[in-house]
Specification:
This protein has 468 residues and is mostly helical. The protein has a domain at 33-252. 54% of the residues lie in helices and 0% in strands. It has 17 helices and no strands. The chain has helices at 4-23, 28-31, 34-52, 55-83, 118-121, 125-147, 149-165, 171-194, 197-200, 203-223, 236-250, 258-262, 264-275, 277-297, 305-327, 329-334, 378-381. It is globular, with a radius of gyration of 24 Å. It starts with a helix and ends in an 87-residue tail after the last helix.
Length: 468
């Protein structure tokens, strides 16, 4: 089963982002530091992938899930901005540049746009930051495995260095650098969540550290307030400290979640937000921008007070859900699962069945009293294994598999993750995470990451490389 606590955390973070962008209430950044939570969940998911697969395959798989929904947005938004006169804009934040349009394809920098359509591209900094974290994750995870909690503290130390030295980089690189130091600790705290190090941290250590970090964040914020008082988004130093403090507490906690299934409307909403997280994030700001023209059209734009705010929120959510209906299928196709119009049921995360090439029998093992080393070496990581394969302990002789001529079980490699014996259940879109599965239990469905079908076609036996 899925870890519904983590699903609920991510759903709450997404709703908080929508409400913050609609009303701009600065205190929301303190009550629920949504971006820190989402980066932490992403780090946990990425660590789970890196435990099982080579780094390049993890990077490919994560980007394949992220980029197609962005491409769909760009395919619609960029032509609209050009029609609205982006080429003729003078003094805009992103003057039209044909080479910079490549950031809509591979966003190592912020995808550009016109000032008239700022609501379409302004939130895309998150996609850019997420992409950089994915690209750096093989290195960051190796560093974390080597130095542990020191790796989590490293981004916070880099903030001190940047403040002391005043180091700046060209605009694109500078934005990526500051996002890394602001949310890098949360990302690597996700590593600690995944391998159980955070759970094993004693309460008398975890909570005092979190309280001290939170207090430091508020102290620094009180003397460095930006345009909106008490808005963490204006002060990256306080954002970094408060976010990691919050993450240390909420990811260390694992409350019982059986109650959620009994509240069916909320349960289905949480499922929908997790299955369509990328679509909601990419389109919610455009939906918010459409609220007031729609209300003006139906003569409801003059409402004030709580009633007006409530109508604005309902309309923003309705338009966002319409965007989910229109464009959510892109997440399904990116994940190689059958498109679903309204994924709220138990099969919302089910992966589409993709036929695999016929397994190539392994050569017979050399008869000896030693274990077959192919089950533990590079050959094991590259050979097909049935989805329900469970790692064996010890060196007892495995059963002979018909057609192989040997006592070895065909394998898909030690980098493959399975869930409940079924490789169809895959968590997609923005990150989700779960507790680490022991050898005696199957992983949570929400932790299933990269099924065999995630490899590019040119890695499949008998298909050859592109162009052949």
């Amino acid at each position: 089963m899925r870890n519904r606590y983590l699903d609920l955390l991510r759903a709450a973070a997404i709703v908080r982002v929508i409400v913050y962008h609609l009303f701009g209430w600065p205190w929301l950044s303190i009550v629920l530091p949504a971006m820190g939570i989402m980066f932490a969940l992403a780090g946990s998911l990425t660590a789970a992938s890196l435990e099982r697969r080579a780094g390049r395959r993890v990077v490919y798989s994560r980007l394949r899930r992220l980029l197609p929904p962005l491409w769909l947005l760009g395919l619609i938004v960029v032509p609209v901005m050009l029609i609205m006169g982006w080429r003729q804009e003078v003094g805009g934040e992103h003057p039209f540049s044909l080479p910079r349009l490549l950031f809509w394809i591979f966003p190592v920098g912020d995808p550009p746009g016109s000032d008239a359509a700022v609501d379409a591209w302004e939130p895309l900094w998150y996609v850019r930051a997420y992409l950089w974290f994915i690209l750096l994750s093989p290195f960051l995870y190796a560093l974390y495995k080597r130095i542990g909690w020191a790796a989590v503290a490293l981004p916070l130390a880099l903030i001190v260095v940047l403040d002391r030295t005043g180091l700046t980089l060209p605009a694109t690189a500078d934005a990526a650098m500051w996002d890394f130091v602001t949310f890098g600790a949360c990302w690597m705290a996700g590593f600690a969540h995944r391998d159980g190090r955070l759970r094993r941290l004693p309460v008398w250590v975890a909570y005092p550290v979190a309280i001290a970090l939170g207090a430091a964040a508020m102290y620094y914020l009180s003397g460095h307030q930006g345009d909106d008082p008490w808005d963490l988004n204006d002060v990256p130093e306080s954002q970094a400290l408060w976010s990691i403090a919050f993450v240390l507490i909420v990811l260390r906690w694992q409350p019982p979640m059986a109650w959620l299934a009994r509240v069916r409307p909320l349960d289905r909403l949480v499922t929908l937000l997790n299955a369509r997280a990328v679509t909601v994030y990419l389109w919610h700001n455009i939906a918010i921008d459409a609220v007031w023209p729609i209300l003006a059209f139906v003569a409801l734009d003059d409402l004030a007070g709580r009633l007006g705010a409530g109508v604005d929120l309902v309309m923003a959510l309705v338009v966002t859900l319409i965007a989910v209906l229109l464009f959510g299928w892109a997440e399904d196709l990116a994940a190689r699962r059958a498109p679903k119009l309204w994924p709220t049921g138990s099969r919302a995360f089910e992966k589409e069945e993709i036929p695999e090439p016929a397994d190539v029998p392994e050569p017979p093992a050399i008869a000896s009293g030693r274990p077959d080393v192919r089950a533990y070496g590079a050959a094991a990581a590259m050979s097909p294994r049935p989805g329900a394969w469970v790692p064996r302990t010890g060196f007892s002789a495995p059963p002979v598999v018909p057609g192989t001529g040997s006592g070895t079980v065909p394998s898909d490699g030690r980098h493959t993750a399975t869930g409940d014996g079924d490789d169809r259940n895959v968590t997609l879109g923005l990150p989700v995470a779960g507790r680490r599965a022991s050898r005696s239990e199957q992983p949570l469905v929400g932790e299933v990451l990269d099924a065999p079908g995630d490899r590019p076609d040119w890695f499949r036996p008998g298909l050859g490389r592109p162009g052949q």
